[in-house]
Amino acid sequence: MDNWTLITIILWIGIIAWGIWELVQFFRRKKAATVLSNEEFKQDMRKAQIVDVRGKDEFDAGHILGARNIPYMQLKQRAGELRKDQPIYLYDDKKTISFRSALLLQKKGFENLYILKDGYSKWDGKIKRKKTV
Q1: Residues facing 127 on adjacent strands
Q2: Which domains are seen in the chain, by residue range?
């Protein structure tokens, strides 16, 4: 067996292993939270903690009325700010970071985690923007 054949085999093994890893992570994220449509999200949002996991600049540019900003990169340290006895509604622009956030919160013992289906980019409810001076 020459070097190129060995390299090709190693690359294919790496690609297959990466694919399996991503598939496992996909199902873990799906189990961590329930996805809600805009209407379902609006229906019970007054009884929940709404968390925007985007960065501060994106949050200031516009966010769902009543949401608090805990960026994903700070969530591990700031998870103590959230109550475990109330549902947590997570959102970001699409929902990718929300699923990661839900998985992180689930590991910390949180339950009743929900994600906005199409993210903030498709939100049609009330929003708030930070006033610029």
Answers
A1: 64
A2: 33-128 (3.40.250.10)
